[in-house]
Amino acid sequence: MFEIRHAEDGAILLCGRLDAVQAERLAGVFARIVTPTTIDFRELDYISSAGLGILFATHKRLVDAGGALRLVHLKPHIRELFGIGGFDKLFELE
């Protein structure tokens, strides 16, 4: 199961398993992001390469417009995935 919610602090909270089937829904939500945004991973258990691609495309679009995505509360196994793919050098990770 995968959910996209808004946290009380304004961050976008990703919950559950973000697999290729759910990536299209995420793309629709992320297409509407036009300002610097925090994405909270505290409840995300899995992210597929399709999900990573959407994060990267959104981040690139925002950087080109002078903004960025900030990713927070990544679980160790997801943070490790970002490191392996070199995404840890592209994103602000907390």
Describe this structure in words.
It is a single chain. The protein has 94 residues and is an alpha/beta fold. It has a single domain, classed as 2-Layer Sandwich (Transcription Regulator spoIIAA), CATH 3.30.750. Helix content is 39%, strand content 31%. The protein has three helices and five strands. It has helices spanning 20-30, 49-64, 76-85; strands at residues 2-6, 12-18, 37-47, 69-72, 92-93. A five-stranded mixed beta sheet has the order 1-2-3-4-5. The mean pLDDT is 94.
Domain count: the total is 1
Average pLDDT confidence is 94
Report the span from N to C terminus.
25 Å
SSE string: EEHEHEHE
Task: Count helical runs.
Answer: 3
Alpha-carbon Rg, integer: 12 Å
Per DSSP E runs of 2 or more residues, the count of β-strands stands at 5
**Percentage of residues in DSSP E strands:** 25-35%
In one word, what is the shape?
globular
| CATH C-level name | Alpha Beta
Q: Which architecture does the CATH hierarchy give at level 2?
A: 2-Layer Sandwich
Write out key terms for the chains shown:
39% helix; alpha/beta; Transcription Regulator spoIIAA; 94 residues; globular
Compact overview of the structure:
The chain has 94 residues and is of the alpha/beta class. It is 39% helix and 31% strand.
Topology at a glance:
Blueprint: E1 2-6, E2 12-18, H1 20-30, E3 37-47, H2 49-64, E4 69-72, H3 76-85, E5 92-93
Parallel strand pairs: 2-3, 3-4, 4-5
Antiparallel strand pairs: 1-2
